[in-house]
Specification:
single chain; about 575 residues; alpha/beta; Rossmann fold; Phosphorylase Kinase, domain 1; 3 domains; five-stranded parallel beta sheet; globular
Length: about 575
């Protein structure tokens, strides 16, 4: 099934350097404490992204990773900044020397005005991967200073710098694994490869391992070929598990031999020895002292608070869910949800505030080093579309979608093209229904250029499921989980608002007269009519995407969750089959 995709953007490296300088100046203006530390981490992420973009540009030009070029100076600067982040963390946010503006300017002086491609570091944006955990793991590893640290781009750029800081070494090189996601390989310069041998000591840093572990595996294969003994290799992954079900036997063998050094989010923050490192201490300035221990409602745990009967729980994909916790205070209960570190998190908080101000989402208390803090609305129940008049529901959902479309325009290149959506839908339909049924998509291909000509990409919600809505006692409809699914770890991204209209048709049953009302309300808010044929096509693409997502989630789910996800798979399969049997575009 086709589901996942990287979030990428084209950027002028000089503008990225200016953004980095601004981030450092923001940190310089803050006194000791968590906000200053979070600003330092934001600067680390910004410099890591710039370093990754410049290194990848050089890799595309030469076809090999090397230590020279503009990326080398940026890499050295990144290790320096990582040392400041680590010093800040170890001191309880009291220390941490900032890089001088002139020093940063010198390292960035030779950047060419040629756009580079920057990939969003997914762990920092979605999965509560904290760079401080890698320095902590390195410092506790018992490894002697002097190792060469290999950071795997993208996120391994910054993670490798933090491992270097924790080990007390300045020797960091970043590498780009390439090829099929399950069969990654490395392409190294002769100098890099010749520098590896039986006497080498190497530390490898990356997020994961994922389904195949092939990024770690690619490095381990090169080290094995170079005669580096496994006992001289240290792995720094984000979790203690082995590679997933798609891993090759050779990858499993190589991954099992070196020692792994891990500090998880729970180790670093939930069970921290120092009070100032704990999440409850971060939240108190926003919501007041906690009246009870934090309640972890991650991985679908929130359902126990919204649904009394487990039989009625909606499905969840624990592997993809953000970390989230309930914080009870004298002033009520708050939901602290991981929204992203650095600029990515700040951007989501601004959107959350704007949506609340417009009356569509819960109250926002603030943001603390990756966590968005919103009011947990106790006196509300999950939406049951069968118990609401469809036209009334269409009116209220339409006002929300129309507001999003008017308020959150999206720049180019931040979402899948219609051709890419068609390829995904064709592939997933064939996987689920067979080639003959999937051929029902073929007549739509010719209509895509016409649809594309009228598209206006916006930061769509992309999460219209019934359980993502709450109904207050007075009938007010609130949208939850509304800030970041247009920039999630999948291939959809930003789309025309018609994508959400199609999602509402599939998830909330807003079709027929209710679908007409929904399109009319959105059009009234945006000033742009919505083509019913476009929505019909997007219903197919939406159902195919959700079918793939539910299928893949089921592969790694526990038995109880697998049954719920199986019901979702059946629902989307039936919807997709029905739409493919209908007439094509007129």
């Amino acid at each position: 099934m086709l589901v996942f995709g990287d979030v990428r953007r084209r950027a002028d490296p000089r503008e990225e350097a200016a953004r980095l300088l601004d981030a450092l100046e923001a940190a310089r203006g803050l006194g000791p404490g968590l906000p200053r530390h979070a600003a330092l981490v934001g600067a680390l992420i910004a410099l890591g992204e710039l370093t990754q973009g410049v290194a990848d540009a050089a890799f595309r030009e030469t076809g090999r990773d090397a230590r020279d070029g503009a990326a080398a100076g940026l890499t050295a600067l990144l290790v320096r900044l990582a040392g400041a982040v680590w010093a800040s963390w170890r001191s309880g946010f009291a220390a941490g020397e900032l890089l001088a503006r002139a020093e940063v300017a010198r390292a960035c002086a030779d950047l060419a005005p040629v756009p580079v491609e920057i990939r969003l570091p997914e762990g920092f944006a979605f999965y509560a991967v904290y760079p401080e955990a890698y320095a902590a793991a390195a410092a506790a590893s018992g490894r002697e200073p002097g190792a060469t640290v290999i950071g795997l781009r993208s996120i391994g750029t910054s993670l490798g710098a933090m491992v270097a800081a924790g080990l007390g070494t300045g020797d960091l090189v970043t590498l780009r694994p390439t090829g099929h996601p399950f069969r990654r390989e490395l392409r190294l310069s002769e100098a890099l490869r010749d520098g590896l041998g039986p006497a080498s000591r190497v530390a490898i840093a990356d997020e994961g391992p994922g389904l195949s572990g092939s990024s770690f595996g690619a490095v381990l294969a090169v080290l094995e070929e170079s005669g580096v003994p496994a006992q001289r290799v240290a792995l720094f992954p984000s979790h203690e598990g082995a590679p997933g079900h798609a891993a090759a036997d050779e990858t499993r063998r190589r991954f099992a031999r070196p020692r792994r050094h891990v500090r998880t989010f729970d180790d670093l923050i939930l069970h921290a020895a120092r009070p100032e490192h704990r999440l409850e201490a971060w939240l108190a300035p926003l919501v007041g002292p906690l009246a009870a221990p934090l309640e972890d409602v991650s991985g679908g745990g929130w359902r126990a608070r919204r649904y009394g009967d487990r039989e009625g729980w909606p499905p969840a994909n624990p592997m993809q869910e953000r970390r989230k916790f309930l914080a009870r205070t004298a002033g009520g209960t708050w939901l602290a949800k991981f929204a992203g570190l650095g600029a990515e998190g700040e951007r989501k908080v601004r959107r959350a505030r704007a949506l609340h101000a417009a009356g569509f989402t819960p109250e926002v208390a603030g943001f603390r080093h990756g966590f968005l803090v919103e009011r947990w609305v106790e006196a509300a129940t999950p939406l049951d579309p069968a118990r609401v008049d469809p036209l009334d529901l269409a009116e209220r959902v339409g006002r929300y979608l129309g507001h999003r479309a008017a308020a959150f325009a999206c720049g180019p290149g931040r979402g899948a093209s219609l051709d890419a959506l068609w390829e995904m839908a064709r592939h997933n339909a064939a996987e689920a229904l067979g080639d003959e049924a999937a051929r029902g998509l073929d007549p739509w291909r010719a209509a895509l250029p016409g649809f594309a000509a009228g598209m206006r990409p916006v930061e769509t919600d992309n999460r219209l499921h019934a359980w993502e809505w709450l109904v207050r006692a007075d009938g007010t409809l609130l949208k939850t989980d509304a800030v970041d699914h247009h920039a999630a770890h999948d291939l959809v991204g930003c789309q025309d608002v018609a994508w959400d209209v199609a999602g509402a048709a599939v998830e909330l049953g807003l079709t027929g007269e209710a679908g007409d009302r929904l399109r009319a309300v959105v059009a009234r808010r945006t000033g742009q009519a919505i083509d019913p044929a476009f929505v019909a096509w997007l219903e197919i693409a939406y159902a195919a995407f959700q079918l793939g997502a539910a299928t893949m989630a089921g592969h790694s789910a526990a038995e109880e969750e697998r049954a719920r996800l199986g019901a979702e798979v059946a629902r989307y399969r039936a919807h997709l089959a029905s739409r493919l049997r209908a007439a094509g575009p007129c």
